[in-house]
Amino acid sequence: xxxxxxxxxxxxxxxxxxxxxxxxxxxxxxxxxxxxxxxxxxxxxxxxxxxxxxxxxxxxxxxxxxxxxxxxxxxxxxxxxxxxxxxxxxxxxxxxxxxxxxxxxxxxxxxxxxxxxxxxxxxxxxxxxxxxxxxxxxxxxxxxxxxxxxxxxxxxxxxxxxxxxxxxxxxxxxxxxxxxxxxxxxxxxxxxxxxxxxxxxxxxxxxxxxxxxxxxxxxxxxxxxxxxxxxxxxxxxxxxxxxxxxxxxxxxxxxxxxxxxxxxxxxxxxxxxxxxxxxxxxxxxxxxxxxxxxxxxxxxxxxxxxxxxxxxxxxxxxxxxxxxxxxxxxxxxxxxxxxxxxxxxxxxxxxxxxxxxxxxxxxxxxxxxxxxxxxxxxxxxxxxxxxxxxxxxxxxx
Length: 397
What we know:
Layout: H1 2-14, H2 16-28, H3 37-49, E1 54-58, E2 62-68, E3 75-81, H4 108-123, E4 132-138, H5 147-153, E5 164-175, E6 179-181, E7 184-187, E8 191-198, E9 202-203, H6 213-224, H7 226-231, E10 238-246, E11 253-254, E12 257-266, H8 269-289, E13 293-300, E14 305-307, H9 309-323, E15 328-330, H10 341-344, E16 349-357, H11 378-396
Parallel strand pairs: 3-4, 3-5, 5-16, 6-15
Antiparallel strand pairs: 1-2, 2-4, 6-16, 7-14, 8-12, 8-13, 9-11, 10-12
Helix pairs in contact: 1-11, 2-4, 4-11, 6-8, 9-11
């Protein structure tokens, strides 16, 4: 295995310029969730160049590809997401986004280019393994219900069912050349909370004649903090945050209604359901006690992401062989959410982190920010490690 790992690493490093080229093309031409038409076509052209059979239009603009080995055997799946975010890029680089207000600020361009690189590495080794590798180029990770759920509905995990699925995600907290793993609970569920406080607007100088929706909304936000601080078990990670408040009044006008938007996240499905009930009760009760009404709408989003121990152990062991154990780290729980969790509810799955940080170059910005970028040396690591994990899984299954 050691000699095969070394050969794979050399081949991945040889592909570096092609990987960077693909990543930069995708970065310059980002597309939002459910709009990945050109990204999908770019992936298809690359698969055609590699003579890899594919099916397009899976779960929207998703692409499902297939690499067959020399004989019958298990199927392992690799996934990359393709969509971008509604963010105006602030980076002054030659490959900056050409689409106003849209940017690959979460590294999905890296994920897609890395999986294309892994596809090339695996295609050239199809005579060395038995079984099959399934490649999932997934749309719409950033918006509910999540492209993963749509691809699953469209048969992405069927005929046959893969023995496992692996995905990787950029991590600007980790230096390029390093990767991170966590077995068991890893990422939170995520639900979208919409509250509409309805009172009676009017002149701000005559509050006694009105029902002040702005004041009541403020009380609702404060009261809801007890969901986490007093209703949740202190040992159970939970987050309830509101980031959007709109009350379209004026300096001297109290609005009829105020709209609030927020997110609830946790790592326990039972507590998740209880928390939804508490949010409704507290928001409606607080508003009612102050003379207003509160409409509570909760869109249930992605579930908690669970990394199954066996594939996670295999991936970590492979990473230690590929990169050296000193470049493989343990990850903490993370309260962000990821629709890869849908796959993990269906089959054994592992989702790990690819380091992309380079402080010397100033590449330190977080994902979902206008200045996010990566150390592009990470591209060869991303492509090579994905391929290595797939080969190891097929050899072990």
